[in-house]
Amino acid sequence: MLRIITQRTEARTELRRICDRTHDDQVFHKEATVREVLQAVKRQGDRALLHYTAEFDQQELKPEELRVSGSELDAAYQQVSKELLDAIRLAHKQIEAFHRQRVPKSWVQFGEDDVVLGKRYTPVDRAGLYVPGGRGAYPSTVLMNAVPAMVAQVPRIAIVTPPGPEKTVNPAVLVAAQEAGVQEIYRVGGAQAIAALAFGTETIPKVDVITGPGNIYVTLAKKLVYGTVGIDSLAGPSEVLVIADETANPVFIAADLLAQAEHDPMAAAILITTDSSLALKVVAEVEQQLIDHPRRTLTEKAIAHYGLIIVVDSLETAAELSNEFAPEHLELEVEDPWALIDHIRHAGAIFLGSSTPEAVGDYLAGPNHTLPTSGSARYASPLGVETFMKHSSLIQYSPTALQKVSEAVDVLATAEGLSSHADSVRLRTKPKQIDSES
Amino acid sequence: MLRIITQRTEARTELRRICDRTHDDQVFHKEATVREVLQAVKRQGDRALLHYTAEFDQQELKPEELRVSGSELDAAYQQVSKELLDAIRLAHKQIEAFHRQRVPKSWVQFGEDDVVLGKRYTPVDRAGLYVPGGRGAYPSTVLMNAVPAMVAQVPRIAIVTPPGPEKTVNPAVLVAAQEAGVQEIYRVGGAQAIAALAFGTETIPKVDVITGPGNIYVTLAKKLVYGTVGIDSLAGPSEVLVIADETANPVFIAADLLAQAEHDPMAAAILITTDSSLALKVVAEVEQQLIDHPRRTLTEKAIAHYGLIIVVDSLETAAELSNEFAPEHLELEVEDPWALIDHIRHAGAIFLGSSTPEAVGDYLAGPNHTLPTSGSARYASPLGVETFMKHSSLIQYSPTALQKVSEAVDVLATAEGLSSHADSVRLRTKPKQIDSES
Fold first, then answer.
1. Tens digits of residue pLDDT in B283-333
2. Is B192 labelled as part of a ligand binding site?
3. Closest A-chain CA to B132
4. Which residues of chain B fall short of a pLDDT of 70?
5. Which positions of A are annotated as active-site residues?
6. Which of B69, B71, B113, B124 is the most buried (most CB within 10 A)?
7. Contact criterion met (CB < 8 Å) for A423 and B255
8. CA B156 – CA B125 distance, rounded (Å)
């Protein structure tokens, strides 16, 4: 059952506890296993992948089965319904349209004395996308990772996903990948898949950036290989924070809280409201909607441990508490959400008004659903086209421009004790000295 | 002495060895020490900071001495020359001007059926900047970190830097900080400083993002606290790669290679040229310029271990090898650098033409000098205003818009086995059901 808190200090303590739920020191114990997997894959390549796939996924693969074949890709289209295919296509269209907005563009700027400065944006050469598997099938994860990589024009994109029973990969995943334009899919998951993408094996190419959510082993592996490759973020369990006033509908809010809780027993679902009677109605409605819930046990566990209702005196206080929590998903179920938004400083995605359930953003509104979790919205952004691009600074000086700054460079280089830095300018700007030396 | 290689396979092997010089497994042994420091600071706060500062920096501080006082900040201006102050101000002006270009701006977009989508950019609340100290003084590092944080409008910015002899902080560092607008400076360095910024102590505030270069302990600490806070990158030793044709001046190139090598015995200095006679001249000129070099021993060590000249048959081949190395700094000392740039895919900063030594970018051209090292330019960008900002996605649907996508969301949520996701839309779009339940 959802608890209601009205006392501010207690609310802060509880929010802190929920936010820190994954920073548990216990995860360090799993690191030894993950390090071992990484080392094995680095040294033994495919052989280690097959070994761990047998051990962790109970699937005995041959090396040539690692990559999903062309005929499996074709067959997947026969295995999904027309409705699902249409839905995937609609989602793809809308996600692509959003991600095509404001893609970073190279620019140069011409200054005095023929100085040219600028930034040159380029995609990474290769990207590896992790798509969780096992019990679930996540075509939406495929789209949310593959579309920004495609929009960034990454030349080579590979997907890794753990095999299910009988070595299968869910057909909806295969269809979503193909709709997004990705044909290179490997049935391997866990830390071993991250290792394969980071180091390369005989079958799987080494990539430059790895993105996508996964369990704690996948996340630890991503943290360990960060620096060898780029990563999107360290994803924790999902969370929603709803800010609601007296105009909000308790039925909608209950459904939204449960939509978060049903992901994972570690998922967090928080309501902050100015209306104590709404709080009570939401508690009752959550109980009601849980009765026939297909994932009742798991969902109840999340609600019990990481569900919370806080009653506050004003929407400003609600925004302040929300900023401290820095939620992955923030719903503003209030009369005037645009007035409240100026008080919001940290959130992965903000859903405005009562007709915008998080689920619409999860699947097809267009913005990415891979968002910063566990308070990292304080400093991190949603996955995007930028995740698959980087830029180089451009600098061109003319002899005249260099002459003008040579004294200042000399002074600074000397202050930092770097004599060749000074020389590299001095030799260029005092031609006589060059003649005598060359 | 600089070696010359002409054989392609050998060149690739050597470039790989140089690129991987910091991915050495030995660093893992230092991790235990760093973990211990992090834990101690997390638990004991200031007390641990004072302990490690005494141990590693040989300075016995009292807690109230951690923060640099107002009178020290004032006094610093009396301790730097007029020329140095002017140079710092010129650098500040130009760095700021460049970083003010194309700062990310919030936007919204209005679609059909009153759908609103957008991105809202906000700065982080607090940033912590690491400035190396010890033997050297790096006012340029202060500017290159503080200016983008200021342009991003970060409300609170703190600098940490290890104390030198007699607890001093270099006055040029203190002046550069104040010129950039930062008054909050702590004399603490190493992993303990990173821990203080990540977890907070009695004196030092917990921040959201930590940036700035440091030694291997600082870098390991940043990697370990990544996820608790954001970081800019994992900086390795510096490197330059020069591509030169027969029009290049060997004196300039030698100075530029040495300007890199003088940083650190692990620094890398590579020339790829189409002109074998230029290669020989550069070898001789490097020897010549080393004779009276104030940091001769250190610089010779870097040249011997990580210096290299590769002679190739075409500039395209040079670009290809450079892309594989993905250098932090790339100089194009060729007749037509803009023609070559289309072949360059990965580099932190690109310096075009013979009047653009790297040093001009290191100090005052404007673009940031904190750049991706050790091959990470394959996926990472220079430090910038974006490092201190993040965005939230914005989504607003209308009842009509939600109605139109409700079927698709339902199909996708059902395919992923998430019933409350489906409910959260269904309950909003089928009013009768709501009435019966509320």
1. 999 999 999 999 999 999 999 999 999 999 999 999 999 999 999 999 999
2. yes
3. A416
4. 23-26, 28, 135, 431-438
5. 328-329
6. B124
7. yes
8. 6
Q: Which of B349, B363, B421 sits opposite A409 (nearest CB)?
A: B363
| DSSP assignment of B149-216 | HHHTT-SEEEEE----GGG---HHHHHHHHHHT--EEE---HHHHHHHHHH--SSSPP-SEEE----H
Instruction: Judge whether B362 is annotated as a binding position.
Output: yes
- CA nearest to A425 within chain B: B357
Q: Kindly state the DSSP code that residue A129 receives in the 8-state scheme.
A: E
Query: What pLDDT does B188 receive?
Result: 98
Tens digits of residue pLDDT in A249-299: 999 999 999 999 999 999 999 999 999 999 999 999 999 999 999 999 999
Asked if B172 reaches chain A (Cβ–Cβ under 8 Å), the answer is yes
Q: What share of chain A is helix, strand, coil (3-state, %, to 5)?
A: 50, 15, 30
CA distance B61 to chain A (A): 26
- The reported pLDDT for the residue numbered A438 is 40
CATH code of A45-105+122-233, in short, is 3.40.50.1980
Residue B423 to residue A289, Cβ atoms within 8 A: yes
Task: Give the count of alpha carbons within 13 A of A350, CB side only.
Answer: 30
Whether B328 sits among the annotated catalytic residues: the reply is yes
Amino acid at A264: D
**Neighbour count for residue B302 (Cβ, 10 Å):** 25
Tokens representing B24 are 């050495």
Question: According to the annotation, is B130 in a ligand binding site?
Answer: yes
* β-pair type (A156-160, A184-186): parallel
A433: nearest CA partner in chain B: B251
Identify the CATH homologous superfamily for domain B4-25+236-379.
Nitrogenase molybdenum iron protein domain (3.40.50.1980)
Phi-psi category of residue B166: left, alpha or beta, with phi > 0 → left and psi -120 to 50 → alpha:
left
Clarify whether B343 is annotated catalytic: no
* Cα–Cα dist A180/A317, whole Å: 42
Closest C-alpha among B277, B270, B382 to residue B324: B270
- Does the beta-carbon distance from B413 to A363 stay under 8 Å? yes
A421 assigned binding-site residue: yes
pLDDT of residue B431: 61
Do the domains B4-25+236-379 and B45-233 sit in the same CATH topology, yes or no?
A: yes
Q: Answer whether B420 sits within 8 Å of A119, measured CB to CB.
A: no
Closest Cβ–Cβ partner in B91, B349, B409 for A364: B409
Do the beta carbons of residue B22 and residue B180 sit within 8 Å?
Answer: no
Please say whether the beta carbons of B113 and B400 come within 8 A.
yes
Q: Out of B328, B331, B333, B358, which one is annotated catalytic?
A: B328
Strand B116-123 versus strand B107-110 pairing type: antiparallel
Tens digit of pLDDT for each residue in A115-168? 999 999 999 999 999 999 876 789 999 999 999 999 999 999 999 999 999 999
- Interface contact A87-B407, CB threshold 8 A: yes
Mean pLDDT of A418-436: 80
**Structural Rg of chain A based on CA atoms:** 26
A4-24+236-379 maps to which CATH number?
Answer: 3.40.50.1980
A420 and B255 in contact by Cβ < 8 A?
yes
Q: Domain ranges in chain B?
A: 4-25+236-379, 45-233, 397-437
Residue B347 CB neighbours (<10 A) = 30
Q: Which CATH entry fits the domain spanning B45-233: 1.20.1440.130, 2.60.120.560, 3.20.20.70, 3.40.50.1980?
A: 3.40.50.1980
* C-alpha span between A417 and B135 (Å, rounded): 9
Q: Which of B88, B98, B425 sits opposite A360 (nearest CB)?
A: B425
Chain segment A43-56, per-residue pLDDT in tens: 999 999 999 999 99
Give the integer Cα–Cα distance in Å for B49 and B163. Answer: 12
Please state, rounded to an integer, the average pLDDT across all residues of chain A. Answer: 95
